[in-house]
Amino acid sequence: MKPLNVLVLFFALIPVTVDVAGAEQLLVIDSQSGHYRDLSYDALTDKGLSWQQRMELFGGDTADYSELTEDQRDAGQRELETLLAWIGVRESQKWADPQFLHRIETEILNWLDSQIEPITAIGSYSGADVQRLRNAAIGFFRAHEIFGLRKYLDAGLKCADRILEAQWPRGHWPWPGKGERFIRIQDGTTTRPFWIMLYAYRLSGEKKYRESALRCADVLLSIKRPGGGWGDQWAFGGGRSGNSGVYHGTSFNDGATNDPFQIMVMAYHLTGDRKYINRLHEVGEFIVKARMGEGNVIGWCEQYNDDARPVRARQYEIELPYPRALTRAVGPLLIWLYLMDGNEAHMDLLRGAYSWHEQVRQKELDPQIQAQWKAMAMAWSPSSHVMTRNYLMEYRPGWPDAWLPDGSNWGRVLGFRMMAWNPLTAEQKKKYGNLVDQGWPPVAQLAGIARAHQPPPRGYNMYVHCHSGVGNSLSEIRRALLEHKRGGRAGMLRYYSHPTKYTADQYLQARIQAARRVLDMRNRRLAYPYNQRPGYTGMSTADDFGFVSAKGRWYGDPSTKWGAAFQTVYPPGSNIWYQWQMIYDFRLARGQVDADAAARGGRGLESVAMHTHLDSWDVLGEWGMASHEMENYFDVPLGKE
User: Fold this and answer.
1) pLDDT tens by residue, 305-357
2) Is it the case that residue 20 has pLDDT exceeding 60?
3) What is the 3-state secondary structure (H, E, C) of 340-397?
4) Is the pLDDT of residue 11 over 50?
5) In sequence order, what are the beta bridge partners of 235?
6) SS3 310
7) Long-range CB pairs of 283-288, under 8 A, 24+ apart, other chains included
8) Lowest-pLDDT range of 56-60, 188-192, 469-473, 557-561
9) Averaged pLDDT score across all residues of the chain
10) For residue range 547-558, what is the model confidence (pLDDT) as tens digits?
11) Residues 413-462: pLDDT tens digits?
12) Could you tell me the pLDDT band of residue 390, with boundaries at 50, 70 and 90?
C-alpha cells in the first residue's frame, strides 16, 4: 500500500471526538473590525476554526486516545512505519535537510552540558539567582526525562538543594530584603519552590524534598484567612513589611489565593490528610460574597478584607471590578471548585461574569471607537516599549483595567483613580467621585490629541498598553464554558483528565501524532538550526534557562506580550521551544520516550499555563501537576466530613 493510502485509511479509522452540538453555527469575524462579532456563551464553538484561531480562543488541546480495533491497530502500525521512514529519508537526502534532527539534538545537548558547571556553582538562593535556580531545576529535570541522562538529573537536584537550603524552618521561602517572620505569597515567592521540591522528589525519591513541600503546604494552611482565601503576605508576630497588599483579607492578585489553593489540593493527594481541604470550600463562598456589580455586571476587585469589602493596594488596584481578577484568579477558582463539588452555581457565576465581559467587548467593536484607538496607537506607541515584531500592540476591545460597578463606564486605573474611556456624566462623577479621574479626557478627545500630533496629557503613554490587556487571556474560561456547554461537568472532566500511563493502543496513537508533528513543515521551519546565519535565536544563543518561564504564555493573544506559539516570521523571535518540541516528538515517535513517561496525567489545577493551557503533548506541559501524576486531580471531597 502506498504511504498516502495508509494515511487516508488511518485518518478514517482512528477514533475522534464526536461533536454532539451538531447545530452549532460558525463564529464570524467582522470584516471591518477584524474581531469576532459574537463570542457569547450561546455562540461558542470551535467548528471551522484554524488551529491558530482555536488555540487563541480556547488554549491547548487534550488528545484523547481510544482503544483500537485489530484493523485500526494494523493500519496504525503501518502508518507509523511509513512516517518513521519518511523522517529517515528527510534526514538522509541532500534535497531535504540532511541531519536536521541530529543537529538540533546536538545543539540542545551541548548547551545543556555547558550550563551544568555555571549553574551548579551558584552558592545561594538569593538575588538574581533565585529565578536562575528555579528555571534551571525545571529545565534540567525535563532534560533528564527526555534524554534519560543522569547528569541532568544530578544538575537539577543540585539546583533543588540550593532552593531547599534557603527554606525557613516554618516552611516558607525568603522574601528578598525581609526577615524570617515575613512571608510573601504573590508571584510564586513561597509557592513556586513547592512544585520544584515535588518534582525533585518524583525523580529522585529522596524524602527530604517531599518533606520540604509539605512544610510549605503546612505554613500556607496556617495563614489561610477565616472564611476566605489567602492574603498577599503575612507577618508572624505582627508588624508590617512596608510593601502594599492585604494581610487580614483575601487577595485575587498575582496568585495570592490560587497558588495556595492548588498546593492544598496537591498536599491532600500526597497525604490523604483532609486538613488541607477541610476549609477550601470557603473560597467559593467568599467569591459569592465578594462579587461586585449591579444588574448584569459581575466582577471582582483584586483585594478584600476579611468581611469581603473591597480594599485598595497599589495605585492601579482600587475598589473596582477588574477583568484580570476574573481571568487570573476567580475564573480558575470557580472552574476548579465546580469540577470538585459539581455545584452548578459556580458555573452560573462564571457564565455571568463572562457575559458581562463579552458585552463590553462588543460595545467597543464600534468602528468609530476602533479608529480612535488606532489613532493613539499610531501616534504614541512607537515612543514606548510596546512595539513588537511587525505590528503595534493596540488596545484590545473589552480589556480596560476596570469598570464602574454599575457598568456605566470603564477605563485605565492610575494614581488611585480610573481614567474613563467614555465621557463622565454628572451622575457618574457624583456616584463615583473618589474613584474616577474627573479631569481626564475620554478616548474620543485623546484620539483628537493624537491626530493633532500632540503628546498625551500628563506624559502618560499607556493607552495602547493596559495592564489588563497585555497580560490576560479568556481562553481558559472560554474552554471551560465550551466543554460545559457541550458535555456538562463530565465533558469538562474529560478535558482536564489524562492517563498517567498509555495503553499499547494509546501509545501507538501518541507516537503517530508525534511523527506527524516532526514532518510538519511549519514545525520544521520554526525549529530550523540557523546557527550559521544572522539573527539566529535557537538553543545555543540562550544565556540561561530563562526560556522556561516563557512557556506559560504560549497560546496568548499574539497582539499582546503572549502568543509565542503563533510565530510566522522566519527566523522567529525564539526557536528554543520549537527545537525542544521537535526533538521530544522525534524521540517519542521512535519509542525512546516510553508509555509511562509520555503520559503525564491530567491537567489538574494548572500552575504553568493556567490562562491559556498547554497541549497535552507539549514538551514541557503541566510539569507542576505532573510532579505527582494523577488522571483526575478533582476527585476531592470538598466540604464533606
Assistant:
1) 999 999 999 999 999 999 999 999 999 999 999 999 999 999 999 999 999 99
2) no
3) HHCCHHHHHHHHHHHHHHHHHHHHCCCHHHHHHHHHHHHHHHHHCCCEECCEECCCCC
4) no
5) 182
6) strand
7) 283/228, 283/229, 283/250, 283/257, 283/333, 283/337, 284/333, 284/334, 284/337, 284/341, 284/343, 284/346, 285/227, 286/227, 286/228, 286/229, 286/250, 287/330, 287/333, 287/334, 287/349, 288/345, 288/349
8) 557-561
9) 90
10) 999 898 888 877
11) 999 999 999 999 999 999 999 999 999 999 999 999 999 999 889 877 66
12) very low
Q: What is the 3-state secondary structure (H, E, C) of 86-148?
A: HHHHHHHCCCCCCCHHHHHHHHHHHHHHHHHHHHHCCCCCCCCHHHHHHHHHHHHHHHHHHHC
Quick one: average pLDDT of 553-572?
77
Residue 459 is predicted with a pLDDT of 79
Instruction: Name the pTM for this structure.
Output: 0.93
Mean pLDDT for 231-246 is 93
Closest CA to 366 of 395, 394, 397: 397
For residue 265, give the nearest of 319, 321, 191, 364 by alpha carbon.
Answer: 191
- Count other Cβ atoms within 10 Å, centred on residue 5: 11
Q: Are 323 and 472 in contact (CB under 8 A)?
A: yes
Contacts of 586 (CB under 8 A, 6+ apart): 87, 101, 105, 514, 518
37 DSSP 8-state letter: S
Nearest to 390, CA basis, from 569, 532, 150: 569
Q: Quick one: pLDDT band at residue 463, thresholds 50, 70, 90?
A: low
Assigned C-alpha cell, 382: 512607537
Which residue's C-alpha cell is 501616534? Answer: 379
Exposure string of 157-178, with b = 16+ CB inside 10 Å and e = fewer, is bbbbbbbbeebbeebbbbbeeb
Task: Phi first, then psi: give them for residue 305, nearest 5 degrees.
Answer: -85, 180
Given the DSSP bridges, would you call strands 233-235 and 249-251 parallel, antiparallel or unpaired?
Answer: unpaired
Cα angle, residue 136 at apex, residues 197 and 162 outer, rounded to 5°: 50
Specify burial of residue 606 (Cβ count, 10 A radius: 0-12, 13-18, 19+): buried
- Mean pLDDT computed over 169-188: 95
> Do β-strands 182-184 and 233-235 pair in parallel, antiparallel, or remain unpaired?
antiparallel
Report the pLDDT value the prediction gives residue 1, as an integer from 0 to 100. 36
**Rg of the chain's alpha carbons, rounded to an integer?**
25
**Residue whose C-alpha cell reads 483575601 in the numeric block:** 250
% helix, strand, coil for the chain, step of 5: 50, 5, 45
* 114 contacts 124 by C-beta, under 8 angstroms: no
Q: Which residues contact 169 (CB under 8 A, 6 or more apart)?
A: 180
CA dist., res. 299 & res. 589, Å (int) = 46
> What is the spatial distance between Cα 364 and Cα 35, in angstroms, rounded to a whole number?
11
Looking up cell 452555581 gives: 345
